Amino acid sequence: MHRVFQEYPGLFSRVSEVLGATFPPPVSATVLPNDLTETNPLERRVDTLLRIETEEDGPFLLAVEAQGKKDVDKPASWAYYFSYLLNKYRLPTTLLVVCQDRATAEWAARPVPLGAPQWPVLTLHPLVAGPHNIPVITDVAEARKDLALAVLSVITHAGDPDVGAILKSLSGALRDTPEAIAAPIVELTTQGLGNRPVAQQWRNLVAVDLSFYTSSISEEIRDEGRVEGRVEGRVEGLLLILEVRGIAVTDEIREKITGCGDPELLHQWLNRAATAATAEEIFTED
After folding, report:
1. How many Å apart are CA 178 and CA 217, to the nearest integer?
2. Among candidate residues 248, 227, 256, 223, the one with its CA nearest the CA of residue 269
3. Where does the pLDDT of residue 197 fall: very low under 50, low under 70, confident under 90, or very high at 90 and above?
4. All structural domains of the chain with their residue ranges
5. CA 43, CA 60: separation in Å to the nearest integer?
6. Residue 248 φ then ψ, to 5°
7. For position 110, what pLDDT does the model report?
8. Strand partners, 50
9. Residue 240: count of CB within 10 angstroms of its CB
């Protein structure tokens, strides 16, 4: 049933017309190896893979991908994931792509036909969650009803100018939440915001609004606050000593002192400032 196409590749263009999909006749054809086994290990990882059981429709697989930007190679990877999972588990598979900006979300949501344009074999059509369709949750009561959705609201709207209101509603909802439940919410929100500027705003809310709450993140934030306090105090003390002793401080030296964030180094400078003849001498051993 297949060898005839090896011997007569041009047959396909004539058969395709019969089948209602017109392909141009070939100029040349090469028989390629038909062994599709992966001879070398090829690492491919989906971000999150879940087997979900349901009472009505039975189990299905949910593959979740976090997509930060457009990537022309992703559709091929997603198609591979789908084919591999179908072959291994023989279960229906759904792909969910989570995005933090509208342009990436719209790119990921478009159906991608895979195959020849005359007759695509598959159409890749993932579900996409992003700022265009995830609700903006700014009400504490609403956030309290579904904390996980509130976290996703924060993450997907991280670039929104009004994200502060979403953060405030989430921190407010956590006030009355048991620590066992609040802990993963705080950690996941922190991770989801990453290095965005709004991440610091969330850290401040955890430190202030959730001051009763103890976690690795909240303790880290409080430690940072204590360090900042020591730094500010030592900077002020160092400049005061130099001023009282009548030692001239240039703009360059003042900038070096105020720009230092190391409390231990500032402590060394303070000790030297008590006996230094010039401002430059406090930095000599550095």
Report:
1. 16
2. 256
3. confident
4. 44-129, 140-217, 225-283
5. 23
6. -65, 135
7. 94
8. 62
9. 12
